[in-house]
Design brief:
Pfam families: RRF (PF01765). Belongs to the RRF family. It is found in: Cytoplasm. This protein is of the alpha+beta class. It has two domains: 103 residues, Topoisomerase I, Chain A, domain 4; 68 residues, Gyrase A, domain 2 (2-Layer Sandwich), CATH 3.30.1360. Helix content is 57%, strand content 15%. It is built from four helices and six strands; from the N terminus they run H-E-E-E-E-H-E-E-H-H. The chain has a four-stranded antiparallel β-sheet, with helices on one face. Strands 1-2 form a two-stranded antiparallel ribbon. Helix 1 packs antiparallel against helix 3, helix 1 runs parallel beside helix 4 and helix 3 runs antiparallel to helix 4. The longest helix has 38 residues. The protein is elongated, with a radius of gyration of 22 Å. The chain starts with a helix and ends with a helix.
Length: 185
Amino acid sequence: MVQEVIEGLRSDYEETLNKLRRELTKIRTGRANVNMLDGVRVEYYGSPTPLSQLATLRVPEPRLITIQPWEKNIISDIEKAIQMSDLGLNPSNDGTLIRVPIPALTGERRQELVKVARRAGEDHKIALRNQRRDANDMVKQMEKDSEITEDEMHKGFEKINSITEEFTSKIDAMLDKKEAEIVEV
């Protein structure tokens, strides 16, 4: 019984960790990364379409992303979509290929991005704590309904807390790594 709750909690924690990982890849560092453009949508036959579904994205150099559209007639639309995004990027094209140079970050901007990353991490830690509270409530209810003993309930609480600490430290490690990427010049 308690094991099912713990397995469900671990699954929820993994999903929370994956959400944070996706969110952190969108935060710009001084390096080029095709994931930076995940949020860019291009008007394609009347509907907003993810850039990755319209072109091949590559990182040939640490500060450059190249975009090879599969259809030449959408180059200007892709360029416009990147300019309209809040990424602060300035693409240029040569008729067949779009080049997106990644400008160096200022010290002030780096500090802002560190704060954004920390805020995202804190939000996901709060999500972990809420999930822990729900799991603890389920275990308490099992004990109240006489499905498990009081000892099993306390062992369940200990296991839930140890899993929570494990995932909290994983979040901290992800944040430390991202912060190091951001402040690296």
